[in-house]
Amino acid sequence: MIVLLVGLTISHVAGTYFLSNDRRDSLIETSERLCADHIAVITHLLDKTPPQERAALVGELGGAITAISLSDHPKVEGRHSDEDELSMVQAALKPYFATVDHSRLRVAHHQTSSDQGRGLWINLLTGFPHDRAMQVSFLLNDGRWVNFEMTMVRDASWWSPHAALSTLAMMVAILVFGSLATSWVGRPLATFAAAADRLGRDVNAPRLPEDGPWEVRRAVAAFNEMQDRIRRFVEDRTQMLAAISHDLRSPITRMRLRMDLLPEGDGRDKMLHDLTEMEAMVASSLEFARDEAVNEATQSIDLAATLAVICDDITDIGLIADFEWSTRLVCACRPTAMKRALTNLIENAARYGREAKVQARRIGSTVEVIVEDRGAGIPVAEREKVFNPFYRLDGSRNRQMGGIGLGMTVARDIIRAHGGDIHLEDRQGGGMRVVVILPQEKEV
């Protein structure tokens, strides 16, 4: 719109300038010819009139735009100021007088600025016009001079109220119709950008309407096709994981029954322990696949109340979890999925880091949840790996203490599905600090 507005305004002003100059030149030339003819007719009439009657005739012929006087000497002194005007007056007088040379004819013109007695804004709007007057002194056949001063068309500049209003009308039209056009073109692009951002949070989002310019429709159609392929890919992998996990439960159960028939011993106990762990891994994988297949609606919840409930539940099982709750914290999310993600993070901190201290706050258009513990911490090289499925750290976070390595994976998947992210940091004084960022489309 800026390019369109500037370009067309310059073009319009330039066109107005050329057209106005051409029109002004034509009007001035016509006015000068009419004045020359008028002077020639009056001069011829005065020359034919007896001297004693000329004074009365001059009073009758003079007027507001024509001043006529008789004198013994010419009022126009010096050289001619405009040869074109001199030629026009000569041509007009020639039919009535035998000789019209420089000794009998003197022509000049003068301009007086019209800003005298006018306000600055009036002169600015009217283009600072000048009052133009043609002055002519002609020697009659009896030796007396007749003097004329005739007001002609004002010599105004090309800038005038009409030019200003014309330019303003054009600019308003560009802004109005340009806004409609850019809105028509930009609305699909804005929707397209929002859908691309939403795709990272919800692969099951509805398809975009294919409207707008042809290029935008092609881009939207390609985007919809890409989204369908990603959705099919995720669904296929999720169904495959669920099917494998489900099918493994039957052979694991049969193997457990057969182990029970074997005589007791270290070998039998170790095999039973491995089968128990495999069964837990299969159950967790199946649960993870089922959760991925659930399409939960987004709702506004009090995240502070949810965190308080999670901490109370964890405290009930003998762990230490404390939430500093000061006020309500409204957050738009998928409630069940978000509760599971936060439960995994807080329970991990309480179980493996001795205690969990939870804080939550709103910063602008984001909600931040911080979970701190007092454990041994996680090495920097291992912090990204803990989000991999079935990855577990040695030491305090080992298999004997529970878990198969899906808690952090599930938590980050859920957080990122909400458009947020999760970071691991060192806690001042020792331990880990988990920071969860949840963007909100608007402050609730």
UniProtKB/TrEMBL annotation:
It is an enzyme of class 2 (transferase). Residues 183-235 form the HAMP domain. Its EC number is 2.7.13.3. GO terms for molecular function: ATP binding; phosphorelay sensor kinase activity. GO terms for cellular component: plasma membrane. Residues 243-442 form the Histidine kinase domain. It is found in: Cell inner membrane. It is a multi-pass membrane protein. Pfam families: HAMP, HATPase_c, HisKA. It catalyses: ATP + protein L-histidine = ADP + protein N-phospho-L-histidine. This is histidine kinase. It comes from Magnetospirillum molischianum DSM 120.
